[in-house]
Amino acid sequence: MKEEKNMALVPAKFRFTTKEKTLMVVIMVLMVIGIIVTWINCAKIMKSNAEYELAYQQYQEALIKEQEELERKRQEKLPKLTEAGIENMNHIYSSDTKRAFLTFDDGPSSNTNQILDILNERGIKATFFVLGSNVEKNPEVVKRMYDEGHFIANHGYSHVYETIYQSPQAVLDEYNKCNQVVRDAIGEQEYNSHLFRFPGGLVGGKYADIKNQANDLLLQNNIVHVDWNALNGDSETTNPTIEYEMQRIQETVGDKQSVVILMHDAQAKKVTVEALPGIIDYLKGQGYEFKNFYEIIK
């Protein structure tokens, strides 16, 4: 009775039937469910976004690490002449252990690829004193040298004595010209070997004074030179044989601890390719460990 009396006091427009009340409850329940579903979906989206952001962050970090590793490897292949490197060069012919530097002048040529094949099979890294004029003819060979971890040193551009030894500045100009074509061939504009071998060697000859002055100028430009203290004799005679080259290696290596071995990979030096496996075997048999100038110029 009391409830009916109270309902009588409610204006007619605010009175709801049981059906209407049920509908309102259903609507409210559906609204609550909708809110819950929306919240769940939002939570899933937020979680998904968080996972995406985490994955993206991890990807970015991995990319940075990969780029850092690539840069580290790139820098390792860019010679840097430090005081330690200069000191190493000053003592290149002395060592507490037996070591051998295989060096090849006057290339690259078609012979160079065969030499690289032999070195690759034996796991040996060598040093190539390239001529700029031949680098221009065989850039892909120089790129292969570089990619396979060999040291690309500088032998000037022309190998024409009257040109290169006009003056000390002419020697430096030939070095720079060769260095630029090497950079172009390997696709690395920061490359500088800092290492020069005078055509004909530094010591003696009609251009001795020019060479000595040029050596001082090179050093002022952070460039050192190296000659050799052993050789295979492939430039001593027109038609050397394998036996001749082996004999000259044995004679000139002798009992030295540290040997820088002069050989040539120019087009005419086919016998050097043929003799190289025997030369390597001989040096190994004598207890030498093979090095290249990446371990010296650093």
Quickly list its features.
298 residues, alpha/beta, six-stranded parallel β-sheet, two-stranded parallel ribbon, 56% helix
Short recap of the structure:
This protein has 298 residues and is α/β, with parallel strands linked by helices. Strand 1, helix 4 (110-122) and strand 2 form a beta-alpha-beta unit. It is 56% helix and 10% strand.
What can you see in these coordinates?
The protein is an alpha/beta fold. The strands form 2 sheets. Strands 1, 2, 3, 6, 7 and 8 form a 6-stranded parallel beta sheet that branches. The chain starts with a helix and ends in a 7-residue tail after the last strand. The relative contact order is 0.14.
First and last CA, distance: 106 Å
What is the tally of beta strands? 8
Rg calculated over all Cα atoms: 38 Å
Order of helices and strands: HHHEHEHHEHHEHEEHEHE
Shape: elongated
Query: Overall pLDDT, averaged?
Result: 93
Structural class: alpha/beta
User: Helical element count?
Assistant: 11
Question: How much strand content do the residues show?
Answer: 5-15%
Q: What ranges have pLDDT less than 50 throughout 5 or more consecutive residues?
A: none
For the sheet with most strands, the description reads:
6 strands, parallel
Helix proportion range: 55-70%
